[in-house]
Structure formats: structure tokens, C-alpha cells
Amino acid sequence: MWWILALIGVLTAIYWLRRRSARGRQVAKLQMAIERRVEERQRSIDGVRKSLDSIDASVRSAIQTLSFSQLVESLQEGKYSAAQALRAYQEKAIAAHEKTNCLTLFIHEAESWAAELDEKAKSSDYKKPPLFGIPVSIKECVNVKGYDQTRGYAQGLGDEAKEDATIVSHLKALGAVPFVLTNVPQSLLSYACSNPIYGTTGNPYDPTKVPGGSSGGESALIASGGSPLGIGGDVGGSIRIPCHFTGIAGIKPSHIRLSHRGTRGSVPGRPLINASDGPMAADVDTCAFMLRHMWTGDWLFSRDPYVAPVPWREEIYSSERKLIIGYYDDDKWFLPTPALRRAVQEAKEILEKAGHRLIRFDPPDVSAAFSHFVSAVSVDGGTYLLNRLDNDILDDTYKPIVRLYRIPLLVQRALSYLLRPIYPRLATALRCMPRNTSELRSVYERIELYRERFTRQMEQLGLDAIICPVQVMPAVPHDVPMKVFATVSYTGLFNLLDYAAGVVRVTEVSEEDEQALENYPVNDPWDKVVKEASKGAVGLPIAVQCVAPPFREEICLRVMREIETGVRTKTDRKH
Ligand SMILES: CCCCCCCCCCCCCCCCCC(=O)NCCO
Fold this sequence. Notes:
Layout: H1 2-51, H2 57-64, H3 68-77, H4 82-100, E1 103-106, H5 110-121, E2 135-139, H6 166-173, E3 177-182, E4 194-195, E5 199-200, H7 216-223, E6 230-234, H8 240-246, E7 249-252, E8 276-281, H9 284-294, H10 299-303, H11 314-317, E9 324-327, H12 338-353, E10 357-360, H13 366-377, H14 383-390, H15 399-406, H16 409-419, H17 424-430, H18 437-461, E11 465-468, H19 489-496, E12 500-508, H20 511-516, H21 525-533, E13 541-548, H22 553-574
Helix pairs in contact: 1-4, 2-4, 7-8, 9-22, 13-18, 13-19, 16-17
The protein binds ligand LS3WMSL6.
């Protein structure tokens, strides 16, 4: 008998040693690929830096001081060329990168694209397209021919796109020049911005804080002035949270209003909670400018039949009709810290002053909605994600969520039961993984019913739009996001509903907010993390979220723009 046990022991040891050495070889291979990429990135940056002087420094700095509308105008009028604009923004992007580590690779073809545009512009019968010569930055997960979309996985290195994503081809058709790719968190399913290839992107206001995620390379770049317009993606807040953390504007359109052909998401095959790509920029009008031109004419509608053929409606964006707008500053699931609640109050006052009617709105059962969100994101209990991460080098910031996903399903349920009295929100999250297809079907049914309930409640009040917080915290230290993933209730809700949802800067954290934080109630460990992580944030930007039902992006943008105008008027008056 003893020899059978010994044999099993020896075989187990051999199996285990072989696995360990296979893993060792794999990690070494990934690390070599990472080293090669880090060197390639440096060469890419150095190469661009060397070419900057092909354009006079005074021209570059003159372009760098232009507002977006001045840039558009001077390119249209031929005051500056596409090549000059490109060099000006390459220079700013390098400076932003040195401060925040926001870039993955420069798109070298940008130079020939700009030159081709300038060549065409020499002909008198050439009509310049509306985005002629505008440099645009692209989130790393969006296909650009010849570049890989690693999504922060080292195993994704070298797997280059064979063609551009539709959104990239469209930008090029409109005359824009995609010029640089920006950093993301590993897996994209995080609002931090760190991965084992390109490292951690910092917030331009404070490098110890996150720029948000997953479009964090974009937000850090744009907030530093390194790109006039960027493309982000959002399945739970990945455009909106980075914009909030860095003080810029951005919008997640409803899912099928833009094309997703060739954009790579975090987890594939996820009905009822889909990702949306959208613009990010220093101001709302720039975001509206891009969408206006993408939804005018039928370039987009004739290229991708899955895009709803809803054209841009200027009459809604520019309307003066007074709106009825709902507002809330607490979703009763996660209490926002004082600065975030004040931002909603200030936005409300601005909108009231502009003549709109503001009505208190209590979103129905956000606890249930959050649970549906987690279920729909993790339909397979996290298996797809864990498989990818097991074959990779795991980023430290992602470890808290991986630990949770690794708990066997039955243990998750038991833990949920035990934790309910002391840690009720974590208990909710631990109860969400569907165990089989019939539980999954019920999740989808509950999402459909929730959509109906929310929308009816809005209809009963006659609401055109809603304003609410984007998050519960200002920008936080890099290790915090995945420890308190439940704070995405404010953004994830509108992915679940597939609403148009955008954010705009309203204020910054004040000394008074910091003092009021002392009274932030701590009822469970998550509250404690939020309270601690929100300290030392004086001066950090704070945004408000504006939402409207599907295909009402023009209303959403209009509300955002009016808030932005009101904030500017207030700031100008102070100075
Ligand atoms: C066993 C219980 C585990 C519970 C963990 C559930 C985690 C669910 C996922 C929560 C993720 C929250 C972060 C989302 C940030 C935004 C992500 C985003 O929009 N990405 C864009 C992808 O294109």
C-alpha cells in the first residue's frame, strides 16, 4: 500500500515541478517581450523628439496655445498645416508623458497621413474635411493597423491589428490624424491605470493618484494639454471616471450609436452591458464637435449596419427649450464624499439659474442595479478574466479583485451569508455570480425589468435628463480602485441602462470639503477605505455626471455644456 502512496507523491511532485518550470519559462518569455517593448517605446519617443525641429519652435508653441476651435479654424484657413499641428502636439504629448507615463506608442504613420492631407490641400478644388489636420489620441485597445492592442496583458504583445477600427477609419476620413496610443489598466476592467508592460500612469495633478481608468492614459494626456481630442471606451465608467479625476469632459454614448468594429473590450460576449467608445477632451464643445461630424452624412451608417442610423440633431443641442432635470447626490448604495455632493448642488444651481426646472430624483434600488451590473460583467464567474491573468504577469493593482474571483462559487455564497450583517455591500457582490444558465437568464430578465422601472420613473416626472455624482471620491492613490470597486455604482448604472452619460468639471476639492470629510460615516471597511483615500485631495478636480435616455446624446451634451458655461462664468467673476 505504502508504495502506491509514494508513487502518487512522486508523480504529484513531478507534475508540480514541471508546471512550475513551464510557468517560469512563460514568465521569462513575457518579461523579454516586455523589455523589448519598453525599448521600442523609448525609441518611438526619441525618434519623434528628434523630428520636432522640422517645424519651427515658435510655430509649435503658437499652435500649442490655441483653443480647439481656434485650432480647427486655423487648419481650415491654412494658417497652419496638418504637419505643423502634428509636431506641436507630439511635443506636448512627450512633455505629458514625462510627467505622467501616459503613452504606449506613437503612431509613426501619422507623419505621412499629415503630409498627404497637406499635399491634397494644395489643390484648389480640394474641400477640407471638418477635422482637417486635428491630431487625435487613441486608447490602446482600439485597433490601429500595425499596432497591438494588448489591453495591458503581456501575452498581447506582438498581436498587431490587420486593419483600423471603424472609428479610426472614420476619424481619418474626417481629416483627423490619429497620432498616439495611450495607456490602460491590465484587462481594462479597472478604474486604476497600471499594467506590467507600460507601468503606471499618474494623475497630472498629483502623480501619487490615479488618472482614472480604464481610459487613464487618455485623461492624463488630455488634461496635460498633450492631445486636443481622444477616443476612450467605457463599460462601467472608463471614460467618465478618468475625466472626473483629471478635470476634463467626456461622454459615453449609448452602445449602438457609434461603431465598435475593431475596438477590443475587457471581456467579450456580454449582452445588456456593452462597452461604448466616445470622445474625451478639454471641453464639452470639442466632444460635441466630433460627434456632430461623425453623425452627419452617412459615412458611418453605410460602413457599419450595427450602428443605429440616428443623425446628429443640432436643433436639440442648440435648443433653448427649458428642460426638466432630475438630480441626486446620494444613490443610497455608496455615499459620495462632501466635494462630490457639493458639485451636484453647484451644477443644480447653475441649471436653475439658466431657467431649467430641477426635481429631486431617487434612483430605484441601486443595490439591485449594482448587483445586476456585477452579474452581467461576470457572467462566467470571472473565468475568462482569470484564464487571461493566469497566463500573464499580474499587475499589483488588480490583485484584490482576482482574490475575490478565485474564491470557489459555493464558498462565495457562504461568505456572503456570513458577511451580510457586518459587510453588507461586499456580501451583495459575493452573491452575484450566476451559477448556471438559468440564473444567467434571470439576471438578464432582472436587467430588462430594471431598465423599464428606471425609465418609467423618469417618464412619470417628465424628466429630460438627470445630474448626479460620477463617483464617491476624487482621484485616489493607485492601489485603491480595485479595493473599492463598488463605488462604480454611479457610472455602471448608466451602462446597465445604456443611457447617454457624460461628465464635466464643476469644482475642485476645498479645505472645507476636507474638513467635512471627518464626518463621513464609516459603517464597513469600504467606507473606511473611501474616507482614507479621499484625504489630501485639496485642489483636485471634481465633475458632475449628466445622463439622458438612449439616443439622447444631444440633450446630455447640452446639459453638460450649460453647466460648463455656468462654471466658467462663476470662475471669471471670482477673478
Ligand atoms: C466574487 C465576487 C467578485 C466581485 C468582483 C466583481 C467585479 C466586477 C467588476 C467591477 C469592475 C469595476 C471597475 C469598472 C471600471 C470601469 C471599467 C470600464 O469601463 N472598462 C472599459 C472597458 O472597455
